[in-house]
Structures are given as structure tokens and as C-alpha cells.
Amino acid sequence: MITKNKNNIIFSALLMFILYSTSVYGQIREYRIHNRGMLHETVYNTGEIGRGWMTGEAGNVTNIPVMEWPSGSKTFVEGIEYSGQHNLLGAGLYIAANKKGQLGTANRMYALCGGVGASTPEVSFGKWSFPYYINETENFPVLSNGSLNPDYNPNEAEEIIESAWGSSVGISVKRTSRAWSYPDYDDMIIYEYEFVYNGDTDGNPETIEQTEQLNDAMILFIYGFAPSMFGYQRNYQDWKYDGGIYRGDQYNFWDADYWLGFNLTTHTGSDDFTTQYLAAKPEPNKQLFKLFSETGLNGGGLLSPQAPGYAMLYYDTKHLATIDPLNPDRNESESVKILNTSMGVYYEIDENGHMKQPFSNKVSTGNTRSSKMIVEAINPEKRWSGVYSEGSTTWAQVPRNDPRWYGRAAFNYRQSNDAGQKHIVFGPYTLNLGDTLRYAIAEVIGYGAQPNKLLEGGPSGQPGLLLQWNKTPNWDKKVVIGGETMTNNYLTDYGYPDYVNSKIRNVTQVTHNAFRAYLGNEPTIPVWPEANPSKGKYSIPVPVPAPAIVVSNTADGNVEIKWGRAVEEFNHPNLTGQLEKFVVLKSLAQMGPWSDTVAVVSKGDVNSDDEYLVLDTDPDYKIGENRFYSVISIDQFGNSSGKTNSIKFSKNIGSVDKMGKIYAVPNPFISKSGFQGAGENDEKIGFYGLPEKCTIRVFSYSGQLIESIEHDAPLYTTAWLQVSRNGQEIASGIYFYVVTTPDGQQSKGKFVVIK
What we know:
The structure is a single chain. The two termini are 56 Å apart. The protein has an eleven-stranded antiparallel sheet with strand order 1-8-9-10-11-18-15-14-13-19-20, with helices on one face. The chain contains six helices and 37 strands. The protein has three domains: 2-443, no CATH class; 549-650, Immunoglobulins (Immunoglobulin-like, Sandwich); 663-754, Macroglobulin (MG2) domain (Immunoglobulin-like, Sandwich). It has 755 residues and is mainly beta.
């Protein structure tokens, strides 16, 4: 495995000195990005996931992945730039506890580590959360030089990010997140958490601020979902909460089979369900809807088909407080002394004397300001979401009619239309110094959910009426735009976009495979996370990996794609099959569609240099234009690697061996003509016929040096933005250029600029 951060910090020894740099005790807030699979996500060493929680106008733009699915989704439509398919308002976790003997909310300690704010984030760093470190490990089977990785660990994920931080409660957190590129497992990220009561309340683990027993400790995991930024912006011109998300457009569903909460955009523009044909937010421009649907550009005609969510894979029960209101010597939950049914706090204890979990299972608005969440969300005196109880008229049916749900937190389906945030709470726990709590969560996303599955939450289909149980929508649906029926069955007519790259398509299937990855075997449905192991097994099927590729220009204006034979020797205890062939793909955009197959190459079909080599001679691919290339491996059973070698490439002509005449193109240069006449090259002049290394000097008619350009690439040409070395745009006139090589060769010429 290749470790990006070489500081090997052992979390269990948190009392060690942690490399301080700046700010609070020298700590710095840092992030790393999961970008191995189709789901890209940003994680911080302060607890935040995606970004600081925000629902305001600032949420319209992001330069980092915010639960981005598919990846590489930034795009331009009708002259407007969009950040792409991002699905998160923010995420994080909360910690709360009381010191032994100090009762009530007035004495309660809190640490809101991300997931807190409203239109703008509340800052966790330096107040509730104190970073220790963040490391990223790349466990890629193939190295960038094309060879197999000798340190590859077949029993681990391909990408691992480990971060740790202290909290104001004195409980430190270590989070290990894992991602894969395999098409059946690339739409998830699995997070394992360890909460250690180490007594550090200020981020300096050399000093211990508290040692008292903690009572009524509680852990909350919170996500804010919004599928997706692109769809909201195209329909509402913004992504802010009041302007788009909080219109009743989206609903949260609770799938107790998998302990999964997820969101869907069920309609657009009105609380009236007669607009249901606009579910998943189809492209509002009719012509573009047809174009996107037919070609797969920008992910197809449905702009927000995503179902982002998270599922509990494991939660701690070993440290749950013993609850015995009748025996003060045995009772460990001090809050029980003030719990009573008149306060609406109902609880049941199991055979071990523990409160049944989860403590709360809530969906609510996107307003997560701290003053609200401290009182409502993580206070043992208030069970915010309610409780399943036998004979209840509010929750007339428990999941699967299973009595094991009685006494557990209910899903508050009546607020599923608020849907800005989803959180789940565990506890109360009793912790002594050194105790550790463990949890595991799968962040998942899919193309909708299992169609027509009866779940709690979601829309009833009747205006003004919310029912406990509703069927999930099917995206093979009718689409009506501006009164015109565009299709009666979207998926039948257009199929799935190619970022849905396997038979694992919807969020239900993705979640099933998340349990499969964590357990190392098929899960039993319904799942009970408390019965699962506290750490993942990660024994999953692995396809032959994609090779490392080299893409280059040839002297005759074609593109050469080359790779070695190393992946032929790849082996794995869970290998899905033997390598059969490679497929060379090309796309206009990183997210696809990857519909242009350049070549299919059989295993062993190599050249005299014992390498695979493919020429792309596409005449429609012009000099100066950009494309994306990828080579995927296919095994004997049709299983595919991920597009982990995807590369952006600009077509050019290979450099000459010996310099001859150098040409400036276009000549004359007429403003806005551009040497390729389109897009990003509109303002550029190209110099053609260059050797690999040379210096281009541009002079004015009077002999003044305008610019000096160092060309050091195996390219026949280079482009100049007609800006002087002083940063000024050049004027109309005649210009001269001189090209010289390190060995003294020289070529001269002139060009005309007309503006």
C-alpha cells in the first residue's frame, strides 16, 4: 500500500504529542478526497463530511466533491457553468454527555463535529472539534508506472482515509473511511468510527482535563441530503434551501430492512402532486431533455434521479447504560430519574437492562443551528422522533410487523417532506476513562430506489395527506414538460446512463452490497446492525484491474494509447474471472457518456515491443480539442474494471525530429477567430512544426520583445494567448517570431493581428 502521509500515528495512544502546526494548539483543519470510485466525497479531520453545513446561496457552488455522483460532473449548459451532481448539504456527528452526578441539560457537555448550521455553517473547529491528523492510503493494485503494486493488500479497500480529532466532551474520534473502484461496489463509502473517552477536551492529548465517569453519553450521526445540485439549479437557478430544497420537492424514506434513510426528489415546483411527472427533475428545456436523454450527456434527461442516503452497519451495545429506575445502585442512566411519560418520553428496556436502539431516528428541516439541535436532538430527556409502541395509533405498523421494533425509536414519517436532514442517535452510554465505542456507516447512492417498495416516509400521493407507508417511485416513468409528453416510460425509452455501470443500480441494491462488503458474506434481511461484527471483513469480489495507460500524440496527427501486460498476472483470492480483453473508450466529458469505443483488444494481442497499442484515427477529433480516454479490463464472465485510468487529453501533433519551417496559425489572426476556431482556443495563436524542446520569442514590428515561450513537450505545436509578458493584450499589427533550439537551430517568421 502507498501511504500519502508518512506519519504513522497510533490512535490508541492518543496521549502522544500530535504534530502541531498552526492555530488552536497548532492544529489545522484539513481534508482529503475519496475519488477512487464513482462516488466522490470530501472528509475532514474535524468530523465534517462534504463541507460545513449550509443551506444558503453560498451552497450553489463547490470546488470539492460534496457527495458527488457521478464524479467529474461539472458542466456548462446554455452558457452557464454548473458545479454538477452534488448531493449533500453537509454531514457530521454530535457527541454529548454529563459528568457523573451532574444532571440536566444545564450541565450537559456537547461537541457538534460538523453537520451544524443553517444558511451558513457554524464552525466546529476550535470550539467543539480539535484535529489530530488525517492520512490517506492508496492501496491500488496497479502503480502509475503500469506495474503491479507489490504492497497491495487484497483484504483492504483501494482507498483508505483515516482521520482523528479530539472533542470538547473529552471523547476523541477516529474515523476510517474506505472506497473501491469495482463497478458493483463503487457507489458507496464505508466509515468505521471509534470514540475513545480519553479526557482531552481541548485537542492537546498531552494534558487530560477530565477523568470523571460520563453518564448519558450519546452519539448522533447526521446527513443533509439534496438530490442533486444540478437538477435544482437547472430548475430554480439556485440550490439554496428556501429557494429549492424546502419546497416539498423531496422526501425521505426509511427502509428498516437495511437501517437505511435516503432522499428522493419526487416532484418539482409545487406541493401539488399533479406535478409528479417532474419527479427526478427532468431537464426543463425540451430540446435539451431530448438531447440529454438520447445521448446520455450530463447524465441523461433526468437531472436529479439520485437517491443519496446512509445505512447503519454496526452500533455499539456493549457500553449502553444499565437502566433500573427501581434500584438506584444499579441504575446508570441519571436522566431516567427525570424521565416520565407526561413529558412524552417513552422507553423500554431489553433483557440486558438497556434502552432499545436507536434512541432517536429523525428527519427534519435543514436548519441544524446548535441552539436547536442541543435541546432537541441529543438530549436524553427528550426522545425527539417518538417510539414504536404496541397499540400506537401514530405508528400503526412497525417494520415487517416485527415486535423487535417495539420500544425502539420510530421514524417520524410526518416530517419526511421536510427532508433537509436525517440523523440517528444511539445511547445513553456509561463511559469510564479509556472506554471505546464503535460504529460503522455506509454512505450510499443509487439511481433511485427499489421501485414500488413499501417504506415508511415519502409522499402519500394525495395532496395534504401524509401516510406512514408509501411506495417508492419508479423512474421508468412518464415525463411531461410544459404540457408536452416527452416519454411515457423514461428508462424503457432511454435506459440508464453509463455511470450506472453494473446491475447494481438503485440505492437499495447499493446498500445490500455495502452490508455484503462489510460482513464479507451475504446479509440476512432484515439486518440487525447490533448483531454484526464491530469491524468490517471486506472480503468482496474483485475484477481484473484497469491497466495504467499512456496517451500521446503521433507525428501524423493521431492519438496513441499504450499500456503494458502487468494486469495479465494479477491474482486475488476473490477474483471474478480471468482476463479476456480490453476495451478502449473515449468521451467528451469525464462523467461520460463513454459511448465511443475506440477498440476492443484481446488478451495477448501485443506489438513487437510486447505492449498493447491502439491508434485513434478519428477524423472528427480535431487538433486542440479535449477528450477523455480510459481502458477497462473485461474478464471471461463479462465483469469489468472501473475506469480508474481515465485521463483528459488534448489532441496535437507529435514534435518533429529536426526543425524546419515554423508556421503561425491562423495568419492573419482576426480577433475571435482562434487557431482552432472554437471554445477555449478562441483567443489563441498556434505555432506549428516545433521540435520537442525550443524557445519561441515574439517581437513587435519595432523589435520589442513581446513574449518568450518555452516549449518542452513532444508536441508539434503550442498555443499562445496573445498576451505580452507584461500581461497586456497585444494590439493589431505585424509581429515577428524566432524559434531556437538548445543546439542552435533557428527558424523565423511573421504573422498579422487584426482587431
